[in-house]
Request: fold
Amino acid sequence: MKRKLLLFFCVLSCVLMVSGCSLVRGNENFDKKTLEQQTDSFLSNWFAADFEGTISTYKDQMDDTTLAQYQLYAEQKAQYKGLKKKVKTEFTITTDSATVTETLLCESGDKVLASLTFDKDGKIQTDDSGNYSFKFDEYKTLGQKMQKAGLNTIMSMSIVFLVLIFISLLISCFKFIGLVGKGKADKAPMAAATAPAAPAASEPENLVDDLELVAVITAAIAAASETESADGLVVRSIIRR
Reply:
């Protein structure tokens, strides 16, 4: 039973993968050659456009979003000056959109990545204000990417080690905290133990009772020894039990 279920899921996964591939390949609007031609035409018009003149002429008719977009284009146009040549073209295609990214060498000497996104109908995608989904990104070589990745890795590892060192120091301080608490707890019993005991009040001796007791004991000893006189008997000490 388990083997049948496993086989069923494998077949289902293959069918879904094939179906997904067929959906992407079946969209005629995402022909790579056509997309590249449209992107080349858009970039040629972009570098030939006069954004400064458009802003000065239609500034009052533009909303804030469109005005900010044209101002950004004007700054980028002044920075890159013009298009010198196209170096490489890359495609990112999904079921409902396609993005064409071209590596450009500009007249200023800068190398940039220009990205243009198309909708499922093969038209350039726009936002609610009618601005095109187009942007420039900084081009980075493999060495620059590896350098940035290495710096990020070193920074992340350094943060982790610093946190671990802080935790270990914090744990090592627990024993000192325990000793401080223990010293406070033992201080009161030690003070009580070292305090000198008050001397007990001595009771006065009752000498009258002792003399009577000596006389009784002497008479008893004389009677027991059949001695007529007790002159020779001397009681030196009395021990109470």
About this structure: The first helix runs from residue 2 to 25.
